[in-house]
Amino acid sequence: MNIRELASVIRTKNAGPFIMTADIIFDDPQKYERVKQSGIVTKEQIARLYRVPLDDILSIHHFDEGRCIKINIRRPVSSGDIGDTDVMAMQQHAPLLLIEIP
Amino acid sequence: MKDYKVISPTSCMGLVGINEDAYKEALAGNPDSVSSDAGSLDPGPHYLGAGLPHVPRFQMKHDCRVMMEGLQHRKTPMVMGSAGGSGGRPHIAWQLEIMDEVARAMKRTFKVAVIDTTLDKADLKKKVQKGKITPLQHDKPLTEEGIDRATEIVAQIGVEPIIQALNMNPDIVLAGRACDNACFAADPVRKGYDKGLALHLGKIVECASAGAIPLKGAQLRVPMIGTLLEDSFLVEPASPNWICTIRSVVGHEVYERTDPTMQLEPGGLLDMRDSKFEQFSERTVKVSGSKWVKDETGYKVKLEGAEKVGYRSIFIAGARDPAYLRNIDWILDFAKQRIIDEFDKKGLKSGINYHIVYHVYGRNGVMGPLEPQREITSNELGIILEIVAETQELAQEICYFGKYGLVWCNFEGRVTTAGNLAYPYSPSILDTGPVYRLSVHHLLDIEDPCMFPIKMVEVGK
User: Could you tell me the residue ranges of all domains in chain B?
Assistant: First the structure.
């Protein structure tokens, strides 16, 4: 099943000028558990989706209280520097929409 | 200990505009203080570097007026943080001027305690020599040359200097660059409330109703009310058609943060790993268990600074011919190489004296190198040719030269002999001015958390 059918929020945003943070948030606790238990959201998987080296995926956290999977990714360039495409990193979530959960 | 009530009128002063009716309703509940922070690095390095605000002046004036008029009948401590957005000296001057205009129109004077958070460059260089400055997420150490190149370096202050300013008994505290939650926590901490809870409360309410949910027919944004108790705090939106739920509060907690359970603060750490969230009433969430952990190794503040890296000119155009789209990579390379060859003859090197950047919307304009989809499925492309060069004149010259490469190149299958691109503007090249890079994002170890000068200013005289 596609992640979009399970999660209620899939977004990215700056977390400081050098890091963008992706949140996948679930309304339904069962759906959250299903994705968490699937073990699909890994650094390797995210690095592949974004076509970046594994080191650029800084961390992945599961926050049970908020039913949120958080992925921290190093920005290709810092916010607003020459070559940046998204100063606030608000539209960098599309690769996450490709995640399929068995 | 009596309940302590704080109001957050808006997420960021001057951004969306305080909802005046909802704010008046909130004021009727007799708050102990009102605070707001105008700051963010989110809009990018330009505003700090250029000394300019990131919000429209009329909206900042509206918010200043609403907050200052609300002060008229009561003596409630009020803290405005990160003046003018970036909290530098030009930003403070800009906001003070607006506050003066508002006060004059009200025919009233206000005592404003202004906290200067801009640091002296000579002092900072001594700190570099003593190894007191370390990178924060930044990949390079701060050097003395780096300090010189930054237009202005500000420190993001915690509660201590704001408490010092509040103790001078002003009508309003106007801080330079400040931590948003410190603006809310300073007065309650000064009055003996728990620092961990006060800072966590500030962190939730600082974005006003961003941590709440609108019901049908609700206003765009409304203020948020936080109430500190001895061992917990409550958060609720200021309007009956907005509600706080555990989901809405926790959902906001994760926003814009790499780790919502731990937050570095000046002089320590806000530890929220054991925080408990309860639905206290239909519209109110109760939070407890958040702790302040003092940094025993010293008191560190974050420094921010931006340096000018050149001047930008851009050419915006659209392509509709299917053959142009098919050959887009060849065309972009051709126009780029043509620039490089031409300016090489003048001794100007790409990547050193100037930079060439393409943004191709319809291909990977939004995500650049991170875009996973490689094939173009659109019937048109939006192209921005961007040049950043040492001077505005040079940027414009190179951009014009580059434009003609894109507009008149002979790509395979070309039938558009009049010109290859549609551009919406005359002039076709737009000079957008100086470009800044966030060059200082470091931690400074300081001895005195209250090292920042505070000056009492009277507005409306």
Answer: 4-304+440-459, 321-421
Tell me which residue in B42, B309, B369 faces A82 most closely, judged by beta carbons. Answer: B309
What sections of A1-102 are H helices per DSSP?
A: 29-38, 43-50
Residue A83: predicted pLDDT: 96
Which residue type sits at B205? Answer: V
A66/B247 Cβ within 8 A: yes
Instruction: With CB atoms and an 8 Å threshold, state whether B138 touches A66.
Output: no
Assess B277–A contact: CB distance below 8 Å, yes or no: yes
Interchain pair A58, B437: CB under 8 A = no
Chain A residues with CB under 8 Å of B366 CB are 85-86, 91-92, 94
**Confidence grade of residue B243 (pLDDT, cut at 50, 70, 90):** very high
What pLDDT is recorded for position B73? 67
Backbone φ and ψ for B388, nearest 5 degrees, come out as -115, 120
Place of tokens 């030009």: B90
Q: How confident is the prediction for chain B on average, in pLDDT? A: 96
Pull the structure tokens for residue B207: 């974005």
All residues of chain A having their beta carbon less than 8 Å from the beta carbon of residue B357 are 82-83
Q: Facing residues of B389 across strands?
A: B311, B354
Q: Looking at the predicted complex, does its ipTM rise above 0.90? A: yes
Measured between CB atoms, does A68 come within 8 Å of chain B?
yes
Handedness of CA B301, B445, B129, B118 (dihedral sign): positive
B358 interaction partners in chain A (CB closer than 8 Å): none
Tokens (6 digits) for B334: 């051709």
- Residue B127, H or E segment: helix B121-129
Q: Do A66 and B260 touch (CB under 8 A)?
A: yes
pLDDT digits (tens, 9 = 90+) for B65-92: 999 999 876 788 999 999 999 999 999 9
Among B344, B11, B364, B335, smallest CA distance to A51 is for: B364
> Which of B247, B253, B366 is opposite residue A86, by nearest beta carbon?
B366
Cβ partners under 8 Å of residue B194, min gap 6 = B228, B230, B231, B292
Q: What structural domains and CATH numbers belong to chain A?
A: 3-98 (3.30.70)
- Displacement of CA A77 from its chain's centroid (Å): 18
Instruction: Check whether B229 has a pLDDT greater than 70.
Output: yes
Report pLDDT digits (tens) over B189-212.
999 999 999 999 999 999 998 899
User: What is the model's pTM?
Assistant: 0.95
Residues with Cβ within 8 Å of B287's Cβ and at least 6 positions away in sequence, in order, are B197, B200, B201, B204, B232, B233, B234, B235, B249, B275, B276, B277, B278
pLDDT level of residue B218 (50, 70, 90 thresholds): confident
Task: Number of A to B CB contacts under 8 A, please give it.
Answer: 124
Which one, of A44, A42, A35, A49, lies nearest residue A98 by Cα? A49
B438 touching A, CB under 8 A? yes
Tell me what percent of the residues of chain B surpass a pLDDT of 90.
Answer: 90
Tens digit of each residue's pLDDT (9 = 90 or more) over B387-416: 999 999 999 999 999 999 999 999 999 999
Which residues are registered as beta bridge partners of B422? Answer: B318
Of B247, B258, B437, the CB nearest to A19: B258
Share of chain A above pLDDT 90, in %: 96
